[in-house]
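To illustrate the input format used throughout this study, we show a single complete record. The first block contains the structure-token representation of the backbone; no residue identities are included at this stage. The design step must infer an amino acid for every position from geometry alone.
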């Protein structure tokens, strides 16, 4: 039975310390460095030794875990998964191989790939009783709402997963989710357009199966374009993991309470939905479409994005970690242009607008001074649109891609002896006491 072997964290505590003088005490705090040199101060003794807590809204300066899965160097635009550069994985692998790498720590050999693929096929159907859930959603239900609800419902259909003390074979857990999420996503699309579900087939590879479930119908034999299949594999790889981003931190947080994997992933799907995070890919295409339909001058869009008075931001731009071009955005932009050329889409107006907007923003001091560049969400929607995937499905595509990363982090957190229930502190600024006496007189 294949069991997840916990990593031996290389995060070294070195023999130097940071000295903290607070009040009349001086505290020596251990320091260390990660595998790629990023330094940390271990503040686990801070409250016990000084009575002080750290204040860090948004956890901008705080590591909540050590991890071996992904490394991002935001200054230099480097992204590694288990040490492999994203450029290598995007060029040389298919999504299932990268999913295997994330979860099991290595790229699969031929036999492992074969077994993973067979498990994927065996787990691709959802329980027939789940079909009724789709029927009772309104047609305009957002697919992210459906996806999250369906994923958490999986735990009702596979209770054995809840009971097993030992992890069930890891690749069963992972393939069940990776395979069924793809089916749920396609079914939610079919539901939204009032077409019958197309079942998965063991005849197809992972992305081929998804495209067939999305676009085949009783009245047309959809033929998967191998270039589109390749692009889909590549885009899912670009989204596979990204350290402790908002949704991954949510998956870890929910998992830290000992909630099951499906509940943790369902919570991650909801976190990803927000337009500041994974929902940005839908927001980008809506921004570009509005510019096109309303004839909004690019200069106005840039001005509004810079204005402190307006809440509009340049969607698909900026990043908490990358302070240079997101390496995934570079690959997505190039792939998007190649796909449109392959599909014979000449002069896509939204791509033209996106390219001009990028040029103008990158030349503007406001964006330069804040190191704001296109991120992974800026170009992906234009490619999905050319494939025929509607905007409300873009963040679902992000979720399918991110699933291996969420699963890998959940498992890593479960096996990390440093990990505890995630329960941050706060700074209370409310009333010292309420006037109960006057209340009881009422
Ligand atoms: C993803 O974390 C991850 O790894 C996420 C992700 C992943 O793979 O999981 O990479 C996926 O979520 C990518 C990000 C998708 N979101 C968007 O594209 C939405 C637009 N971008 C932003 O809202 C913003 O850039 C964030 C949320 C992504 C990052 O915000 P931060 O790190 O909190 O930065 P900030 O809001 O403090 O911005 C710093 C300054 C501010 O101006 P000042 O107060 O200094 O004057 O930059 C400005 C911001 O107003 N700014 C922008 C901007 N992003 C930041 N101004 C205009 N347009 C923008 N897009």
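Output of the design step:
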């Amino acid at each position: 039975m294949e069991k997840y072997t916990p990593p031996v964290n290389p995060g070294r505590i070195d023999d130097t310390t940071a000295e903290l003088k607070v009040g009349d005490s001086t505290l020596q705090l251990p320091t260390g460095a990660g595998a790629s040199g990023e330094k940390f101060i271990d503040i686990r003794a801070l409250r016990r030794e000084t009575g002080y807590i750290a204040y860090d809204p948004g956890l901008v300066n705080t590591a909540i875990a050590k991890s071996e899965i992904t490394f991002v160097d935001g200054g230099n635009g480097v992204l590694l998964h288990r040490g492999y550069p994203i450029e290598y994985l995007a060029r040389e692998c298919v999504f299932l191989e990268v999913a295997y790498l994330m979860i099991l720590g290595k790229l699969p050999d031929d036999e492992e790939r074969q077994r993973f693929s067979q498990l994927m096929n065996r787990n691709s159907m959802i329980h027939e009783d789940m079909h009724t859930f789709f029927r009772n959603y309104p047609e305009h239900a957002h697919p992210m709402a459906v996806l999250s609800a369906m994923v958490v419902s999986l735990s009702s259909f596979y209770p054995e997963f809840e009971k097993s003390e030992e992890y069930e074979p890891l690749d069963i857990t992972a393939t069940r989710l990776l395979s069924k999420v793809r089916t749920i996503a396609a079914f939610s699309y079919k539901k939204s357009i009032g077409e019958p579900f197309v079942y998965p087939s063991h005849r197809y590879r992972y992305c081929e199966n998804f495209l067939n479930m999305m676009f085949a119908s009783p009245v047309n034999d959809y033929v998967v374009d191998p270039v589109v299949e390749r692009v889909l594999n590549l885009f899912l790889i670009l989204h596979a993991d990204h350290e402790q981003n908002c949704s991954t931190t949510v998956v870890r947080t929910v998992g830290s309470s000992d909630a099951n994997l499906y509940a943790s992933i369902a919570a991650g799907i909801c976190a990803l939905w927000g337009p500041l995070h994974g929902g940005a890919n839908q927001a980008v295409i809506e921004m570009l479409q509005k510019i096109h339909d309303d004839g909004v001058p690019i200069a106005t869009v840039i001005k509004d994005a810079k204005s402190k008075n307006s809440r509009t931001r340049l969607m698909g731009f900026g990043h908490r970690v990358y302070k240079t071009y997101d390496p995934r955005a570079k690959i997505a932009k190039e792939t998007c242009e190649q796909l449109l050329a392959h599909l014979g889409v000449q002069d896509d107006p939204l791509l033209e607008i996106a390219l001009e907007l990028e040029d103008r923003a990158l030349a503007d001091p406001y964006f330069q001074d804040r190191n704001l560049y296109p991120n992974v969400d800026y170009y992906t929607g234009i490619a999905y649109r050319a494939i025929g995937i509607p905007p409300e499905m873009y963040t679902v595509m992000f979720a399918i891609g991110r699933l291996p990363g969420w699963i890998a982090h959940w498992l890593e957190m479960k096996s990390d002896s440093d990990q505890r229930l995630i329960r941050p502190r706060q700074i209370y600024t409310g009333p010292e006491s309420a006037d109960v006496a006057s209340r009881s007189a009422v």
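Structural context for interpreting the output: The two ends are 66 Å apart (CA to CA). The beta strands are 12-22, 25-33, 39-41, 70-73, 78-81, 84-85.
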